[in-house]
Specification:
With 339 residues, the chain is an alpha+beta fold. Helices cover 38% and strands 13% of the residues. The protein has 2 domains: 154 residues; 182 residues, EpsJ-like (Ribonucleotide Reductase Protein R1, domain 1), CATH 1.10.40. Strands 1, 2, 3, 4, 7, 8 and 9 form a 7-stranded antiparallel β-sheet that branches. It has a two-stranded parallel sheet with strand order 5-6.
């Protein structure tokens, strides 16, 4: 009798273990499938970029609605990038703006030119980063410290750009967790956490508004895709170098830019989104001069495109997310990440 009971317990235990192991195997298979579905979505997105770049008739002016790709006359971003079936699942090319722009999901691509490129900062324009940190709610001294330290982190010399706010090897060597100043371009945004003045709180607020791409070149910002925070930082930074221009003038100009580019329906990311034109907006003389000063950094075409693809395997619901930056000119992949 006891032998029968023991055998029954062993059988139930083995059956339960087998069920768990089988579930784990099925999940692993589902996860593997979702990875390849996500890769298929990435290839699809890159092909859409290639088609846009090769089309001589395509409007090489990116907006929030059409960024990096040209949509068909009756095609919406959702139709182009949402729930695209492939194999045993589907993929979505989507993004969440993050930061102060909210957590709503949008479909399509993001350009890096909507962000401030910290690798393109110089002694002539680093006040733009300082203004950005300040706009995000941090004090001016902290903002200036970070901006100066970012310059020192990436320049090749050992002399601080500012003796009060800068930071080279002599500063980092005295820290409890000592390290060297890199003296080369940023390879990733996470490097900002090593820079003087940076905290996790500031980094989390800042990361959605800055980029490290491209590694070389001049600072370029797309006025037609940049969020309000970035445009405000740029406008306020330029207001400090112009006579008789106040921060309130900068804020008023940014409000007019945002309102104009939304189009007649007054909503962003819709088909009637417009390319910002100075002569089309009701600006005063001060705002006009400020816009012209900002325009030295303007670009209409976005060459670095962030592709975020979520692949989903239907049977188990397993998902994989791939995110990478694609250089439009040669379709090379930069800085990719897979969860």
């Amino acid at each position: 009798m006891w032998i029968l009971v023991i055998l029954t317990v062993l059988t139930v235990s083995l059956g339960r273990n087998t069920h768990v192991e089988l579930s784990l195997v099925k999940h692993a298979v589902g996860k593997l499938k979702s990875k390849y579905i996500a890769w298929a979505g990435f290839v699809y997105a890159v092909e859409r970029i290639r088609e846009d770049s090769a089309d001589a008739d395509a409007v090489k002016q990116d907006t929030l609605y059409q960024c990096g790709v040209r949509l068909g006359d009756e095609e919406s971003p959702q139709e182009a990038f949402q729930n695209i079936t492939v194999g045993d699942g589907y993929f979505d090319v989507q993004y969440v703006p993050g930061g102060q722009e909210g957590k709503k999901i949008y479909y399509g691509l993001q350009d890096e030119e909507r962000r401030i490129n910290i690798n393109a900062l110089t002694v002539q324009n680093y006040n733009i980063l300082s203004a950005l940190v300040n706009v995000l709610g941090f004090d001016e001294e902290t903002a200036k410290t970070i901006a100066c330290a970012v310059l020192d982190w990436k320049d090749e010399d050992d002399s601080p750009v500012d003796t009060t706010y800068g930071a080279e090897d002599d500063y980092y060597g005295r820290l409890a967790r000592a390290h060297q100043c890199k003296n080369r371009s940023f390879d990733s945004l996470e490097e900002l956490l090593l820079v003087r003045g940076m905290t996790r709180e500031i980094y989390d607020a800042l990361k959605d508004y800055v980029t490290v791409f491209p590694k070389q070149g001049t600072l370029r910002v797309n006025f037609d895709t940049a969020p309000a925070v970035v445009l405000t930082a740029l406008a306020r930074a330029m207001s400090t170098v112009l006579p008789d221009v106040a921060p309130s003038d900068a804020d008023a100009l940014v409000e007019k830019i945002l309102r104009y580019r939304q189009g007649e329906d007054g909503a962003a990311l819709t088909r009637d989104d417009r390319v910002v034109g100075l002569n089309e907006m009701p600006v005063n003389a001060t705002e006009r001069n400020l816009f012209l000063a900002m325009s030295q950094f303007r670009t209409y075409t976005s060459n670095y495109l962030r592709v975020r693809v979520k692949g989903t395997e239907k049977a188990r619901g397993a998902q994989t997310v791939i995110e990478a930056v694609v250089y439009r000119n040669d379709l090379s992949t930069l800085g990719w990440h897979r969860d």
